[in-house]
Sequence to fold (175 residues):
Amino acid sequence: MTNILRRTLTLTVVLLAAAAFAQEQGRWNAQFHPDKTVYLMLQTGMDEQHGMNQRSLTLPLARLQNLNFTPGSASTNAHFEIKAEAGTITFTGVVSDDTGAGKYSFTPDRAFNKAMGDLGFFVDPDRQLSFVLHDVTVAYAKAMRAATGVTDGDLVLKMARLSQHRLRGEHVEAL
Fold:
């Protein structure tokens, strides 16, 4: 009986870990600006558990890695990535002039979750993509914990978002 219980528990843990680190997939739209920034919107599909999720932000064009096109050029297939400690977002699609659209997939980095956990931060797998978009690093989380005493991963993410808005000179009422 104990062996059956151990096997069941082991299988349950493996399945939960696999689910927590499954790839998120969705659609993207982008507007490339002359000031070398990109307005990026990500959308996941509808499902009963999470509904529809939409994220949008403006990033420096330099955050897009392995870009196989030049923004503003003629219509072409597109591939690029956003890499950060929390994982990698891979984009495929089509761009034409200053706009683009297609599909994305997000692969979380387990080492990021472990390092954040070692610091006492829980990173919700459903929000880990936001840690990539806002380039939240383990070092940043550690510095925020030392400066403010915060131990909540979501609060670290909010502080990163706030500081990015302030760097761009934007007034922020609430996040």
Helices lie at 2-20, 110-118, 128-133, 138-148, 153-167. Residues 2-20 form the longest helix (19 residues).
